[in-house]
Amino acid sequence: MKKKYIFFLLAIIFLLTIKPVKASTIEIVDDSSSDVGLYPSIAVDSNGYSHIVYYDTDNVVVKYAVNSSGSWLKGNIDDTGGPYGTTSIDLDSNGNPHVSYYDDTADALAYAYCTSNCTDGAGNWTKTIVDSSGDVGRDNSIKLDTNNNPSISYYSATDTSLRYANCDDFSVSGCDDAVADWTNIEVDNSGSVGQYTSLGLNGTARHISYYNASAFTFDLKYATCSDNCHLAVNWSDSTIDSDDQVGQYTSLDLDSSNYPHISYYDTTNTCLNYIYQNAGGWQTPQAPSTAGGQYTSIKMDSNNHPHISNYLYLNTLRYAYYNGSSWKATSVLGIYGQYNSLDLYNDIPYVAVYDNNSDILKFVYGSAPTSTSISIDSGATYATSQSTTLTLSATNNGQTEMMISEDSGFSGASWESYSTSKSWTLSSGEGTKTVYTKFRDAYLQESTTISDDIIYDATAPSTTASPAGGDYTSAQTVTLSASDATSGVAATYYTTDGSTPTTGSTVYSSPLTISETTTLKFFSTDNAGNSESVNTETYTITIPTPAPEPTPEEEQESQQENLQDGKQITVDPNIQGETIKGQDLIIYFKKITADNWMQWNRHHRYPTKWTKKKKKTLKRFWKMTNDFAKSQKFKIRIAFRYNKNLFKKLKKKNKSITKKDLVLKVKPGKKKWRTIKKLWKNAKVTHKTKKNRFIVKYFNKFPKATYRFGIGLKKTSKP
User: Fold this and answer.
1) 579: Cβ–Cβ under 8 A, 6 or more apart, which residues?
2) Beta partners for 437?
3) Mean pLDDT value of segment 578-586
């Protein structure tokens, strides 16, 4: 007695400390009287419609409800006697309900079925008393085989034994004659056995879990038969859990391999227990929950994972399930579920429950979590590390688990406990990463999949300077070029005083002009926040002192130039540097003019008149130039330029002279001379023309004048 009192206190303490979970959806099935809904049993058809059988205490009626129309339709099954007790329901291959129930007035096991209009009234139900041999029919459990033949396990209070009844010809007889159609046997009478029965069928085999209430025993028992189960001799029984006081409120279901799984109550530890069989035999009992365990109801899902509804003392509905790696258990807020029954549809639990607080029948099922959200690093655009933090949320509809993956199909992912924050390591490789998540509630209703993106960039940008540092003889224009393949360059910072740049330094925006020796330091950052190491380039600028302007007698220079078609021209050594009577005749490339003429210039000062010797020199010079032009296939032009004083004198004597070029126009006869710079159209013209004689004559008029005389060459396709 003292021991039970301690467990009672522990149960109260646990109830006060657990965190209840709001049921996703709660519907009122029947509140038509002040006490309705006892001993409910539920079965869900292939369309997802729930069928419930239960007892209306006030009206002393066995009732049936179904939600196939979108609302709960209710009707009577048996209102001829009563009171009535425990009920059980199963559906045939057409989705029609078959029920067993205890007729407390007759102390008998009753069976009823309906094929149409099952909520219109008791008249549409076919009812039969299956066994009335004493006080029989309590704790009944009904199952139909593939031929729609019913089998029922139940308890005989008269001889405290486990009993079994079956009808093998439903399609012919309708199983409505207890004597002709039904066979009743005693399966186990070894003491006070048979309470809290639960039946499972596979083919011709039968499985029953039940309680051994014999004094000083209180064990969980299991009976089975492989064939011809209407014969007691074909049954065998065994005790499968005898640890302390166990075995009340059993419920049995078979997995896809037809192995039995049983939930039951551990009275000693006041908790839910679970045991199952596999190829290795019965496995050690487990405690899915440290609270609850009364009035259990078990169903196996498509993954062969058990789901169990049960009752916690002090009127709380509990729900437990195995997710493949661990057990999850919750209390359903607002439901006082003393009597409850569970079935699955698409692995979603549906629970019919008698709320013994309001004394009405309710229906509980899951509703997928909504208002779900996920963000990576609080919604950041970039991540510089694979280690991130996920922030998650979903509506408080009993969500207990979540699944996270970078694969939208969640390949390789598994369900884990719901949390509003989780550390997450991004997959390797830089670029955009997408993290997906979904949630599910205590009833395994899944939310839609949601996701968040982030750009993973752990590589700093790269910056180069062009030209690179080095020794230069002139000012340099330096361009800084930065690149970042993933998030892009945010900014480039630099200094030119040798100090180490920071993000507070000058931001590069356009090329830099470096005209003196400078140490340039620079680095870049990207949009993800990665920062490059500081780069250093040193520019040593040494500008040479320009040479003084040469005097006309000292001016000597030779230079190669590229013509328009890329041909290299080299001054003929026979011309370059040739000495004529002590005077150097130096020809050099001066420049390329706007119209692609390459000018050769020669400076002379003639202090005397243009003598015969001078004329000879000039003629020799023209001939050499003409020969060179012919050999190189150039056009030739000659121009003379004078100093300022000479120009003024010429302008007074000839008004057609321009400042840019000396233009001589004469009229020997009727023919006009062209300007001197266009005297020679090509290399075929010799120096022995009147034009040449005119030039000599004209220059003789201006002795002691400084003049510049030049020859221009231009590439031509013809010699």
Assistant:
1) 585
2) 404, 450
3) 34
Do residues 613 and 581 touch, judged by C-beta distance below 8 A?
yes
- State whether residue 442 is helix, strand or coil: coil
What is the band of 165 on the pLDDT scale with cuts at 50, 70, 90? very high
Give yes or no for residue 517 having a pLDDT over 80: yes
Torsion region of 9: left, alpha or beta (phi above 0 gives left; psi -120 to 50 gives alpha): alpha
CA 351 to the chain's CA centroid: 36
Q: Name the packing angle between helices 690-700 and 612-632 (round to 10°).
A: 140
- What are the CA-CA distances from residue 134 to residues 82, 155, 193 (Å)? 16, 11, 16
Instruction: Say if CB 140 and CB 153 are below 8 A apart.
Output: yes
3-class secondary-structure state, position 525 = strand
- Look-up of token digits 């926040």: 529
Return the pLDDT at 127.
95
Please tell me the distance from the alpha carbon of residue 706 to that of residue 211, in angstroms, as a whole number: 137
Confidence at residue 112, expressed as pLDDT on a 0 to 100 scale:
96
pTM: 0.61
Beta-carbon contacts of 157 under 8 Å, excluding residues fewer than 6 positions away, are 107, 134, 135, 136, 138
Tokens of 608: 């005397």
Higher pLDDT, 408 or 316: 408
pLDDT value for 76? 95
Distance between CA atoms of residues 127 and 111, nearest Å: 6
Question: Residues 209, 250: contact at Cβ < 8 Å?
Answer: yes
Q: What do you get for the CA distance between the two ends of the chain, in Å?
A: 134
- Give the DSSP H/E element, type plus range, for residue 138: strand 136-144
- Closest by alpha carbon to 186, among 226, 133, 227? 133
Which backbone phi and psi does 666 adopt, to 5 degrees? -130, 165
Residue pair 54/352 in contact by the 8 Å Cβ criterion = yes
Residue 379 carries which DSSP code? Answer: G
- Of 242-246, 381-385, 457-461, which gets the smallest average pLDDT? 242-246
Query: Does pLDDT of 236 surpass 90?
Result: yes
Mean pLDDT of 134-154: 97
Residues in the chain: 719
Sheet hosting strand 25-30, strand order edge to edge: 25-30, 360-365, 348-355, 337-345
Q: What is the dihedral of CA 346, 348, 349, 352, to 10 degrees?
A: -80
* Residues 501 and 494: beta-carbon distance below 8 Å: yes
Q: What does DSSP assign to residue 531?
A: B
Where is average pLDDT lowest: 71-80, 115-124, 622-631, 688-697? 688-697
Q: What residues pair up with 526 in beta bridges, in sequence order? A: 489
The amino acid at 80: T
More confident residue, 528 or 633: 528
Which of 175, 111, 181, 186 lies closest to 142, judged by CA?
111
Q: Which of 353, 302, 349 is nearest to 328 (CA)?
A: 349
Q: Compute CA 501 distance to the chain's CA centroid, rounded to the nearest angstrom.
A: 38
Q: Cα–Cα distance between 654 and 265 in angstroms, integer?
A: 134
Q: Cis ω on the peptide bond leading into residue 668 (within 30° of 0)? A: no
> In this structure, are residues 211 and 247 in contact, taking their beta carbons and an 8 Å threshold?
yes
pLDDT of residue 675: 32
Using alpha carbons, select from 123, 170, 118, 120 the residue that is nearest to residue 142.
Answer: 170
> Which one-letter amino acid corresponds to residue 224?
T
Residue 216 above 80 pLDDT?
yes
Lowest-pLDDT range of 176-185, 244-253, 579-588, 596-605? 579-588
Question: Tokens standing for 236?
Answer: 């065998």
